Amino acid sequence: xxxxxxxxxxxxxxxxxxxxxxxxxxxxxxxxxxxxxxxxxxxxxxxxxxxxxxxxxxxxxxxxxxxxxxxxxxxxxxxxxxxxxxxxxxxxxxxxxxxxxxxxxxxxxxxxxxxxxxxxxxxxxxxxxxxxxxxxxxxxxxxxxxxxxxxxxxxxxxxxxxxxxxxxxxxxxxxxxxxxxxxxxxxxxxxxxxxxxxxxxxxxxxxxxxxxxxxxxxxxxxxxxxxxxxxxxxxxxxxxxxxxxxxxxxxxxxxxxxxxxxxxxxxxxxxxxxxxxxxxxxxxxxxxxxxxxxxxxxxxxxxxxxxxxxxxxxxxxxxxxxxxxxxxxxxxxxxxxxxxxxxxxxxxxxxxxxxxxxxxxxxxxxxxxxxxxxxxxxxxxxxxxxxxxxxxxxxxxxxxxxxxxxxxxxxxxxxxxxxxxxxxxxxxxxxxxxxxxxxxxxxxxxxxxxxxxxxxxxxxxxxxxxx
Length: 467
Known about the structure:
Elements: H1 3-13, H2 15-22, E1 33-34, E2 37-39, H3 50-57, E3 69-70, H4 81-94, E4 100-103, E5 125-128, H5 131-136, H6 138-141, E6 150-153, H7 156-160, E7 164-169, H8 175-183, E8 201-205, H9 214-217, H10 230-244, H11 253-258, H12 262-267, H13 270-282, E9 296-301, H14 306-320, E10 324-329, H15 339-356, H16 359-381, H17 390-411, E11 414-418, H18 424-434, E12 438-441, H19 451-466
Parallel strand pairs: 1-3, 4-7, 7-8, 9-10, 9-12, 10-11
Antiparallel strand pairs: 2-6, 5-6
Helix pairs in contact: 1-19, 10-13, 15-16, 15-17, 18-19
């Protein structure tokens, strides 16, 4: 992530904790910490190491004593792993056990790195990572070949001994596994389901992660559901439509019966109900004559493709209404650019410089090609990769920006602006210079840790400061 995005995220996430500590309201000097896990063979200084993550996001900002910090080490020699794990367990016991165990959850239901079929009484150990876990880690490592295939993790039994367990999940990509963990069978197929047996466990979920729980997805089963509200009737009809894989017009009485919704169609005649809901949904579509006309429209987009994913059709209508449109991209998007694109860029630049006969430019191109080629060779030989050098990042940014400009020009007369890092001051300066009369902020907000949500927080922060 961009440094600016990290700053926004930290200020919104743990910022209050840092502030309260500075004011003397919070004290971590007597706190003892035990991290759950670490990738095996990953150096603690690697950008995706949990040792590095904890330092960068918590330990370097609070007054916890270094001797009280315990994080599994990924570089333990193979013949010493069992002893390391035993010593870690002993350290936990010596500290009096874990008072509060904070967990996330993987899409396969893992807690810590206890992958599917882990035993309920398992202890700290070296484990093989599940394919789902590896695929999910691609976002951090950029290439599945660079992801460690093993990890050292606390066992399920170790976790279950904690006095209190808190599990936090966010985003709709976690919804199905949350439902299985909370409402499904307690078994090793979904390791988080073991927490059903813990005496003091609380799940903290956002709306997206909780969306498939029965109380949320089918609230009528809980009783007392208010059918007088059209939005509630629409929720039920859309649910049946999705479950039965039928268009609303094609739904029959038996479809509603299958989902315990006969009272709804008995109270609201089926034909009239379907017409009502279709009309209700159609009303959400904004016709072209209701959109802004001859205005200055600013579209704030986390990545250089989000405006087309979120607003593609709307942008076409806004252009047709003679609006002046600017798309501002709030991240560099360099993680989406493959290394091979950089190679193509430097070779194209070298050929261009040769064709123009500019000897000084040719010499600089040769030096750049040599430096980047050597770096990429070193990067390929590294087991876990490492961050791009400055020249690589700069070229990836140019490639991504060029793609954005090309896409905007293809759609119509749309100007591009680039605000990497989602920095509030830069957004405000753009507001002052462009002076938009209409602003769209696009992106998927279901994952609070995504650049989309972080960029949205920057916009919210801007509104608090300047508007």
